[in-house]
Amino acid sequence: MDKLIIEGGTRLEGTVKVSGSKNAALPILAATLMSEGDCTISNVPPLRDMFTICRILNELGVETHYEGGTVSSRLVSDKFCVAPYDLVRTMRASICVLGPLLARRGRAKVSLPGGCVIGSRPIDLHIKGLAALGAKIKIEHGYVVAEADRLRGTEIYLGGPHGSTVTGTANILCAATLAEGTTIIEGAACEPEVADLAAFLNAMGAQIRGVGTHRLEVEGVTSLGGCEYAVIPDRIEAGTFATAAILTGGRVQIANCRAEDLSAVIDVFTQIGGKITPTDNGICVEGSGRIATADVTTHAYPGFPTDLQAQVMVLLSLAGGISVVTEKIYPDRFMHVAELNRMGAKIRKEGSIAIVVGAERLTGAPVMASDLRASAALVLAGLVAEGTTQISRVYHIDRGYEKIEEKFNALGARMTRVDEPT
Predict the structure, then answer these.
(1) Is 227 a catalytic residue?
(2) pLDDT tens digit string along 141-182?
(3) Residue 20 CA to chain centroid, in angstroms?
(4) Predicted TM-score (pTM) above 0.70
(5) What is the helix, strand, coil percentage profile of the chain, to 5?
(6) Which CATH number do you get for residue 50?
(7) 175 beta partners
(8) Cα 146–Cα 149–Cα 155 angle in degrees, nearest 5
(9) Judging by DSSP bridges, how do beta strands 143-147 and 136-140 pair with one another?
(10) pLDDT of amino acid 121
(11) Three-state DSSP class for residue 241
(12) Average pLDDT over residues 241-265
């Protein structure tokens, strides 16, 4: 098991290229289950989650080949309909094969993804939407079993207690593309990753209107063909490097980044004290050396993303005053707080709110990663902390960041990956 050792105190400067979006690539790859032709998908990051979804596709009769950031897929058998627990349990997003399987093969048996350290993430809205399209669904022996001779278009509302469901929208959108008639999805998630999936489906021959809005209109088609498609850049990785630039008082050019996907992030980071300038293919982020307080609330897109909540908390832990972070998407997503406090942060959690009192400094310490974004927060804290930080269980970070130590070291960080004896 690997761990990261970080020597803090260096100013970051240079250019970093953002990889393709993990959260966009996963549902796009799952959607290849519906294609009757070959698909070639580029800008796919070489992450553990990508290899997991490809293994699931292989189990379901889709042959995949990954090389140089491109996944080629080809249907070899449509007889398989079971996504097994042994694979699904390693990645919650595996549930995104449910809609494509049901739509293309008339039956899907997908393991329930189980618990998660960032809190409860039920799939009730997925089930509600598929049932509205005419599927018969039951939960048995830890699996969702869905069946339908032919799905039929209808009107569906997908809003939930914490906003729209991203993977739920992906599942219903995929199912609706092969349903008979017209489907209208109200309260759809409008994240760039959902819009990217819709664009991919349209490239295969789907007829989806309202892409990027909360109202999607889908005219069902009888089949989908193959296509070539490039995944959008990862806005969360871009936001993580932007955080690092401000945190260290550095200047970082972030390439392969879409500024329009980061409007809420840019607004908050500018308020905190960063200077962010659009460039031809990304943004330039500069830190002033001083960090201001801010009250940050996570919301569904276009609000501040929950996937950057842990990272911005590191910034605020060094601000000159009191900040309040409110988590509206996953109210229990504060696993990083205890570890940041071990490094000298002054954070108090009260329900879905964290009160952050700015500290004079952070100091290096042995810490343990609990999930993907908490891992990123600990890396950021290590970059600015005095002394040495050792982060265990970094396999979490490998799920969402490609070669993170290489990218940070190219900017001047001092980060080493070592094997940790089990």
Answers:
(1) no
(2) 989 999 999 999 999 999 877 678 999 999 999 999 999 999
(3) 11
(4) yes
(5) 35, 30, 35
(6) 3.65.10.10
(7) none
(8) 75
(9) antiparallel
(10) 53
(11) helix
(12) 97
Neighbouring-strand partners of residue 83:
110
Q: Which of 39, 116, 174, 190 is catalytic?
A: 116
Over residues 59-105, the pLDDT tens digits come to 999 999 999 999 999 999 999 999 988 888 878 778 999 999 999 99
Residues 273 and 291 in one domain: yes
**Shared domain check, 273 and 246:** yes
Instruction: Give mean pLDDT, residues 315-326.
Output: 97
Helix locations, 111-230, DSSP H: 124-132, 166-177, 192-203
Judged by DSSP in three states, 10 sits in coil
Token code pair at residue 119: 């809190």
Could you tell me where the DSSP H helices lie in 278-318?
A: 309-316
> 3-state SS of 56-102?
HHHHCCEEEEEECCEEEEEECCCCCCEECHHHHCCCHHHHHHHHHHH
Residue type, 20: G
The tokens 């290229």 sit on which residue? 17
**Would you place residue 396 in the very low, low, confident or very high pLDDT band (cuts 50, 70, 90)?**
confident
The owner of tokens 């004290």 is 273
Are 52 and 395 a contacting pair, CB within 8 Å? Answer: no
Residue 362 sits in the same domain as residue 237: yes
Structure tokens at 374: 């908490």
CA 351 to CA 324: how far, in whole Å?
Answer: 12
Domain coverage including residue 273: 2-18+233-419
